[in-house]
Amino acid sequence: MRASKAQATGARENESRHAPVTAKRRRRIAFWHDILIQVKRSKLEYENAVGAVLAPDLNMTFRQTSTRAGRYIKQTTGYQAFVPAPLPPNPHIAFDDAFLEVLSRADRAVGRLDGCAETLPNSELFVFMYIRKEAVLSSQIEGTQASLMDVLEFEAATRAGVPTDLSDVFNYVAAMDHGLARLETLPLSLRLIREIHAKLLFGVRGARDAGEFRDKQNWIGPAGSLLMDAVYVPPAPPDMHQALDSLEKFLHDKNPMPYLVRTGIAHAYFETIHPFVDGNGRLGRLLITFMLCEQRILSRPLLYLSFFLKKNRSEYYDRLQAVRDSGQWEQWLKFFLRGVAEVAEEATATARKIVQLREQHRR
Predict the structure, then answer these.
(1) Which of 5, 62, 73, 257 is 20 to 30 Å from 184 at the Cα level?
(2) Residues 133-147: b if buried by 16+ CB within 10 A, e if exposed
(3) Residue 73: which H helix or E strand, with range?
(4) How far apart, in Å, are the Cα atoms of 121 and each of 118, 188, 200, 300?
(5) In whole angstroms, what separates CA 162 from the centre of its chain?
(6) Terminal CA-to-CA distance of the chain, rounded, Å?
(7) Alpha-carbon span 339 to 248, nearest angstrom
(8) Angle between helices 190-200 and 237-251 in degrees, nearest 10
């Protein structure tokens, strides 16, 4: 009797399982399907709404996936500032095949450039022009409208009074000249960085803070943006000074590391600290040249990345941010080394064309 009941129950369940879907059942399925869709949509809208409300307060912690390069620390007024981890990066830089290839290319290109400069008929004139070209490009990245022709025409005319746009360019040249001269007697240091900054901002926008590390919070974002809307918030002053100490020690660290790699790390770290109220981008690019000249990797200041960084501006900013958010030091360094290689190869090609023109003229 029990067996027959079980068999009957099983038969009914089997019949129900294979029974045709009635209109009523179809409506019920559609009803619950719509409910599930609405629940999912409401959940997504809720998460987006919460994210929109909290994101300005949390800045970029939502997308930070690694604390290798530092971490976002909530400040007393509610925003989050990035505090860099001490240098060198930990874990250490990983050199895969692609990394070694681009590093080798960059090393060869810089070596060729330095050697080629020795063969120029007038290397000082070549350096003169290259410094001004770099000054124009670096200033254009910051919004200056002056061109290289504007600079040369003004110098040739020796007119009194420097136009506003040209002031940034001539200050860049003065900062370069001052830094290279001081490197003969003073190592690259926080003291020298402040001196160079004073030359860079002399008599232009931001001159009030020239040569002084900031004592207030700054941030990076679109023109007119507020702190809570910032794309990136550098460390607050107390953390900034600790990071600067780490940078200075790293500049003179004796532990073995390819010097172009050290230079790329130092540049990214300086831009992450953003220690001045204004002029950080220009000084960060000058730092590259000073490091290479101090170590005699370049006998003359002929390597300037501003053209490469201007051409690849979006990727440049993205790579720097990826270091902060995801600890992607290796990806940043491959990008940096690719820029070094391209710029050095272009400068070498230009120098060779000058030599060829001289030989043709002699004939």
Answers:
(1) 257
(2) bbbbbbbbbeebebe
(3) strand 70-74
(4) 9, 31, 31, 15
(5) 31
(6) 119
(7) 24
(8) 110
Q: Which of 118, 52, 106, 15 is nearest to 305 (CA)?
A: 106
What's the alpha-carbon Rg for the chain, to the nearest Å?
29
Is the predicted pLDDT of residue 20 greater than 60, yes or no? no
pLDDT tier at 167 (50, 70, 90 boundaries)? confident
Copy the structure tokens of residue 14. 């089997």
Q: What's the CA angle centered on 252, arms 187 and 256, to 5 degrees?
A: 140
- Give the Cα separation of 85 and 318 in Å (integer): 19
pLDDT score of 213: 97
Reply yes or no on whether the pLDDT at 25 is more than 60: no
Q: How many residues does the chain have?
A: 363
Q: Exposed/middle/buried for 58, CB within 10 Å: 0-12, 13-18, 19+? A: middle
Say how far apart CA 227 and CA 233 lie, in whole Å: 8
Q: Contact 123/117 with Cβ under 8 angstroms?
A: yes
143-166 confidence digits (pLDDT tens): 555 666 665 556 556 555 555 567
How many Å separate Cα 302 from the centre of its chain?
Answer: 21
Between 196 and 1, the higher pLDDT residue: 196
Exposed/middle/buried for 51, CB within 10 Å: 0-12, 13-18, 19+? exposed
